[in-house]
TrEMBL record:
SUPFAM superfamilies: S-adenosyl-L-methionine-dependent methyltransferases. InterPro entries: Methyltransf_25, SAM-dependent_MTases_sf. The keyword Methyltransferase applies. One of its GO terms (molecular function) is methyltransferase activity. This is Class I SAM-dependent methyltransferase. It comes from Sphingomonas chungangi. One of its GO terms (biological process) is methylation. Keywords: Methyltransferase, Transferase. Gene3D superfamilies: Vaccinia Virus protein VP39 (3.40.50.150). PANTHER family: 2-METHOXY-6-POLYPRENYL-1,4-BENZOQUINOL METHYLASE, MITOCHONDRIAL, METHYLTRANSFERASE. Residues 195-291 form the Methyltransferase domain.
Length: 378
């Protein structure tokens, strides 16, 4: 399954395409074979060793890690996983750097555009964003490499496709399509007229909302200017009118009660808990009466320290330092503290992560997601 072509998707030479394919295959080998194998090594060798030495099983994540670090298999698997992550971004990035001037030119807004794009050059980039290259992606989502830059958006678009080895679909939109489809099925009478997607990135989760509710006015915001420019150009090329603006989800410039639906996908696990709470408070301000908030819930709390260790590889090894905080956050309490009625909270319950179904099943560790979490403003 090839990635859907659009005007600003980077082109590849034969050799670049081959290298990118290799990176995706290496990640798949690590995710589906090497890392799950560490569970077997731990259960068969390293936990029994720890129990013989200490007279008890490991009691916390630190002790689980202490036990398995004896294993060469574990150390080698970790190395392959980290190298695969770095190699993916480096390989895709080299291809983009070669054609970046052309991509910038293609992404410039056109007068005939049906959507819109707003950049805020005075927006302060928060320290938690600026100090960490999330996913080990160089420059994160916000770093500018020149005037009218789109590097970060292009890197994420092409990189994520290979990161998930095509499992996110030809438009990288499976998560957004599933989220919008679930909401329409669960609340068939809910017909939002104005929708806001927070932390929209290149628009993977944004465009499906316009496709699900074609009469709605859809907005997407993200902290990164290069990502927002790219998202607008991508949406226009795919024929989906969306209004994108560079904004921080914890404090936007929209008026009170501007939206009927405020949503986010793959955002909260990249934010510190105190800012997740601020985002929920901003969501409450932005929603009109009867408006709904819907987020992807991340992963459910782990069942003990061993399960927590084996399902948080990215937290420790791929620059996702805030994901553990989300796992332990009481989302119902956080929404209630933001002002939403306690009895308006709802969840879809645990489910298989959508993108894993396109990646050969759920063989890898951490194959479950907490599904969708939402609430209503009355």
């Amino acid at each position: 399954m090839a990635q859907t072509r659009h005007a600003v998707l980077p082109e590849q030479t034969h050799d670049e395409a081959a290298r990118e394919e290799y990176c995706g295959t290496l990640r798949k080998f690590f995710t589906e074979t090497l890392w799950p194998g560490t569970r077997e090594v731990y259960a068969g060798l390293e936990r029994p060793r720890f129990e013989r030495e200490h007279g008890r099983p490991p009691m916390n994540v630190r002790e689980v890690k202490q036990a398995i670090e004896h294993s060469f298999y574990y150390r080698a698997s970790n190395l392959v996983g980290r190298c695969a992550q770095e190699l993916l971004w480096d390989t895709v990035g080299e291809s983009i750097e070669r054609q970046l001037p052309a991509l910038r030119a293609k992404a410039k807004p056109r007068s005939e555009a049906r959507g819109s794009v707003r950049i805020n050059p005075d927006l302060a980039i928060p320290r938690y964003v600026d100090s960490v290259d999330i996913h080990v992606m160089p420059g994160n989502f916000h770093t500018e490499r020149g005037e009218d830059d789109v590097y970060a958006g292009a890197l994420y678009d092409r990189g994520v496709y290979h990161f998930a080895y095509g499992g996110m679909g030809p438009e990288n939109d499976k998560l957004g399509v599933a989220m919008a489809g679930w909401l329409k099925s669960r609340f068939p009478d809910f017909q939002p007229k104005r929708i806001l997607d927070m932390g929209c990135g290149p628009g993977f989760s944004t465009l499906p909302w316009k496709q699900a509710y074609p009469d709605a006015e859809v907005h997407g915001i993200d902290i990164g200017a290069p990502t927002i420019r790219y998202a607008h150009a991508r949406a226009e090329s795919l024929g989906v009118p969306v209004h994108f603006s560079q904004q921080d989800a914890v404090q936007t410039d929209f008026a009170d009660g501007s939206f009927d639906l405020v949503t986010s996908c793959l955002l909260t696990h990249e934010m510190p808990v105190h800012l997740i709470r601020r985002m929920f408070a901003e969501t409450y301000r932005l929603l009109g009466a009867g408006g709904m908030s819907l987020i992807d819930g991340g992963a459910p709390p782990a069942d003990g320290p061993e399960e927590e260790f084996f399902t948080t590889w990215f937290n420790r090894n791929a620059n996702e330092p805030f994901s553990a905080g989300l796992r332990n956050l009481d989302l119902a309490e956080a929404f209630a503290t933001a002002g939403f009625p306690a009895d308006a909270f709802f969840t879809s319950g645990a489910r298989d992560a959508v993108y894993l179904k396109g990646m050969g099943g759920t063989k890898q560790a951490g194959g479950k997601s907490a599904g969708y979490v939402g609430t209503v403003k009355r």
